[in-house]
Amino acid sequence: MMNESNAMVRGSDEPHEGVPLGSTFDLPPEVEQVFTEFRTCEFSTLARDGTPITWPLITLWQPEEQRFVLTTSIGLPNKAFNARRDGRVSLLFSDQTASGLQDPPAVLVQGDAEVPEEIHTSPNDLGEYWKRTWRIQPAGKTYGSNVLTRSPMDWYYMRLYIYVRPRRILVWNDGDFAKPPMEVYHVD
Amino acid sequence: MWTEIEKYLPLFESAVLSASDGEGYPYSVRCRPEQDRPEGILRIDLAGGTNVQAGPASLLYHSHDEELWNQKIFLLRGRLEETSEGHVFRPEKFIPSVGIGGPLGTVRMVLGVRKATAAYLSKRNLERPRIPWAEIADLKVES
After folding, report:
1. Whole-number Å distance between alpha carbons of B110 and B116
2. A97–B66 C-beta distance less than 8 A
3. What is the reported pTM?
4. pLDDT band at B38 (very low <50, low <70, confident <90, very high)
């Protein structure tokens, strides 16, 4: 788990001390833009046999909490089961479609996940996430908007939250995977 | 499995390879796998150098439009191997998701999700939660 004393942040020049827990991450702005503007990340959890299973997910970056929040329906629970069994996960930001960013970097976040048991049904439990979801995926507003579709679609709003604290952040400038990545954050 | 791979692979320019790194964390990179059907593998150029280890791995293919709609997603589970000619991925299972398999695939997926939802609740002796539809509608308006 992240430890204030050994958290280091690296910019393009010299490594420097990480910021204390509770304040914002000192990441390059282009990296934070990727976190907030990319529509999805490729989220990986480890299956029982060790296979990384990867699916595209919407994320919410909470810099003040130094974490990402992702969610999954209890009808698609395997990623939650995997992360509860083995908290080692990763988020790759490599699809810039619809982000509006010009030549953004690709970013890999490796981290440690926690998945509480609580099932959330109210969007107000994580309003920021749902507002972002409906903004970037306007057609998603149709889920449950019609009384007739509510019963068949109720599972969509039965959500588990997945909290991920970064452990290492790697950046490929211009999204060029033919070059080695640059580490911009790590926890020993 | 290869019938599906050959059918859907041309829809995508690239894929996300995920394997484990030396510390056991998932490590993903975007790549352009090339089919080698006679060998039953996908060849992957990892010229940039990565921390991925040979072993259990997956390849994710996904796309969406400007409004995060019309998604197409499938996953290949398999193994990453390091050979004298470079890295190869040997697929073992094709896992379709959103937008793959036509209308029947969508129906099958929704039925599967509903079944999994019931199972999740049943295993925990939980009643099906009520969804606060009015709250959802209000927040949609705010969005």
Report:
1. 10
2. yes
3. 0.91
4. very high
Looking from the CA of A21 toward its CB, the CA atoms found within 13 Å total 11
Q: ipTM of this model?
A: 0.95
Per-residue pLDDT tens for B74-127?
Answer: 999 999 999 998 999 999 999 999 999 889 988 998 999 999 999 999 999 999
Q: Which residue do the tokens 């002796």 mark?
A: B125
pLDDT class for A16, splitting at 50, 70, 90? Answer: very low
* A residues 86-115 closer than 8 Å to B (CB): 88-90, 92, 94-95, 97-98, 106, 108, 110
Are A54 and A83 spatial neighbours (Cβ–Cβ below 8 Å)?
A: no
Residue found by looking up tokens 């509480």 in the block: A116
HSE, side-chain direction, 13 A CA sphere, residue B49: 4
Query: Does residue B37 contact residue B4 with C-beta atoms inside 8 Å?
Result: no
Report the distance separating Cα B115 and Cα B108, nearest Å.
Answer: 11
Matching residue, tokens 């705010």: B142
Q: Does B16 touch chain A (CB under 8 A)?
A: yes
